[in-house]
Give the backbone structure.
Amino acid sequence: MTSAVCYMCGAPKRTPLGRCDACEIEPRSVEAFSKSLVLSSHLMNEQDLADASGRLKMGQGFSFPPQLLRKADEALKDKQLTDMLRLEAAGPNARNTPTKKVSISMPVGPAKTMRPFISTQSTLHQSPFHQLQVSLRDGRKRIIEAADERSLEIGDDTCQAARSQLTNPRQRVTAEIAWLPGVSPSKAQQLIKTLETNAHRLRSATGVPWLAHLNLLSAAFESVDSTFSGEQISEFIEEIAALAESVDPAEVLRDINEDRVISGFAEIRSVDQIETELAERKRHYRNSVKEVLNRLPPDQLVQAMTLAVESTTLSGETHAPELIDDLVDGYEVDVQGFLSAETANIERLLEAIRGAASNGESAVRPLVDKLELVAQNWDRVAQPIQVSSKARGIRHEASHDLAYDIRSVAVDLWNKHGLLALSQQLTALVKSLFAELPELSDRVEEDAEALRGIQQNRENDAQEIANREREITFSAELGMIFKDVLSISPSGVSWKGRGYPLDKITRVRWGATVHRTNGINTGTTHTFAFGDDASEVVGTISKKDIFDTFIDKLWRAVCFRLLNDLVKALKEGRELSFGGGKIRDDGVTIIKHKMFGANEAIHCPWSNTQIYSANGAFYVQAKDDKKAYIGSSYIEGRNTHIFEELIRMAYKKPGMRKLSDILN
Amino acid sequence: MGWLSELFGGKKSELDKDIAAVFSMVNRILDDEEFQIAMLPEPVQALIHSKAPCDEKAGATGDFGMSAANPIPVNGPIGQLAYISKLRTNSGDGLFFHRIGAVGAIDVFEAVSMPGSEWFIFFLNMYYTRRSRKAPTGLSISSEPSQFSGFTQHCRDFPRDFPEAKQGNGGSGLNFAYISLSKAQAALKKGTFERPLSHRAKMDIVRAELSSVLT
């Protein structure tokens, strides 16, 4: 059974990604899902969950560990899971993309049911039509009568003001636009009753003209409070914004004039007057929504704004309705102080990171983690503004500046201090927080790619080093009582405590001697030696398997380098002594052995030589003169094995003229 | 086999016949769709015969087999065993599986690749006359009849309790159509079988939606 805690209210939940029974919040964005997953026994132990629950219940907030959020984000990339959660976007903005509903099977249904709520003190209730209980079709005479009738009930002053507004042609149009134009008197009464009994039903009202519907929803929205979830509030705002966008001044003019024909008031001749009134009315809607939002707790306000902007702009891809833009502009002014203060905090942290970078990763990591939390909080509040800016095609300067500041530190952490992991962490942070900045996202993606490449190279290098270490490391203890240690490792080769670093070794030799007594094999001694130009260590062991393993490791650790050095030296034109002769890149000076008289040195090109092994030695012989040869003992001669390997490799090259041809 | 049978006389021949009959029966259980339906009680057969065969339900939405809105058509519970047992991952591995419940008429199975690295949740509708020839995305269907490697019951310690589940399944008469215990145990010994976070999250969602839960 999975334990889970609501990321909003801290109450226990039945399933991590489902709706909270206590606050009725249902996660809808990737961010909400991530937080919900973090606050579950999948990622936290029971004690930590209880602590988080306590903090959230006390309203102290909870700092979501970035590493857990990253795990949750990773999990939320699973296709089947995103389908189950109705997560449609998987792009850079997916983190805040609103979703529809958690369900594995049923078709996406309507928005979750909002509990009934009522509105009896709304702007519509302040309308002179409602105060006097008259309709748009009532004439001057009926209005005056109604004012008299209602004066005892609502006061004479109120009635006179209402009468005056409805009978004065200039003021009347304002009242008409703020009421329910195009709605019949009986239906208007019915709608007001609905507003007073179950305002939620008005959201699905049909057959109501746009403006009248808008006025009803705006009036209903005035009663929204903090018991509504951020999602519910954002949906409400989206509906109001969509209706405000749909109102057509010509239709309003027609509706009003149709009623005026009946009421006997002079028809409005120009649509301009309606447009002016509607512009004023839109300011009312904006202020009305803003007033409600400002009554909400900050987290709920931010959530509602973020969801509304994300949803209406399709995560910044399309223009939002005008009302949403207006709300964002107002919101930006309101949160300016907070963002400035947090920006200053972030700048201080960035400065501290720069200062601590020379002390290494352990000094910087706590600061980077702290920066991550502060920046995430900053971004959470700035998110509606960022998305709105993207939708409007304008740059949000504060985000832009902050993103570049963090990126700059990320670049410095790598370039100046080699702190790859932290640089990657900050780059990932910029990438996730400022995905709405198109010009930045490409650059950050390039940074991330470059850092990934560096990391990959590092890992490969580390892997190669580890492999090489594994390949050459060997140690054996020899001897029955007094143990002699033969060892080879990246730090060097040693025998009985004497050794050389690998790169100092310039000579090696080895071989086996079979001992026979009276023709009977009495054992084999394996001899090896290694050293530098000045000295060498010589050892003998009897165990063949240990000897073979040691020589294999020696080849990998030393001999390949010696072979390479030989080829380089020959290519540079040097002559190397071997078996009494000289080896050059293009040939060999060999000795012609004479029975009588002094031996003679002759030069042979490689094409005129042949090679063979015999009697524990390696020989190079002139093809056309069997008495002309040089040879070097494997067990006694310096680097005989290396020369042999080099010459045999060269022999395999068709048409070989120089030993250095093996490099081609 | 022929000359050996002749050499050892009639008794061996009888034995061969018996063995052949058993193999034939196993093959029919594993692969013969009509036979698989015929093994079911009459009322279930009637339900199954009420639906036309298809590889994927027409007009279904969602990824095939991965959503209750687009379940895999199969022929009864034995068809479920046969279908999932024939699924192969991209690496060619078979699956262990068990049923965790149902969403309405749609059965929900949890499955894991035999090396234990890939986890799945499948949705199957067993009321069709034959099993689908289509595989969910990322999987393929083996062309050979495959021995059963999972259950239509819930396994508490899935997949580690495969041996116990197989023992407990003795009454079904299907045990000889299952993969051998040694093969299952070898795979269970090798694999880690740790559910990834995404899979656990999916299981939470699925469990909350189940209309019937197997425990």
